[in-house]
Fold this sequence. Notes:
By secondary structure, this protein is an alpha+beta fold. It contains one helix and five strands; from the N terminus they run βββββα. It has one domain: SH3 type barrels, CATH 2.30.30. This is DUF4176 domain-containing protein.
Amino acid sequence: MRIMNQKVEHKRYGIGTIFVLKGKKVYVAFGKLYGDMAFPYPKVFEGDMKLVNQELQEELMEELA
Length: 65
């Protein structure tokens, strides 16, 4: 899955950009307000966060199913 450098929308933290996918963690930069955060991958995409690019989001959900 090509999610590096993709924009995401998190329910609590808003819009961010994925900058690392390592092991079972995805790292997202949310800017000055929240900074960089790590989330469990792929679990975070099952509810709290989604890719802004709808086509990639659908691909990701199919891949995780």
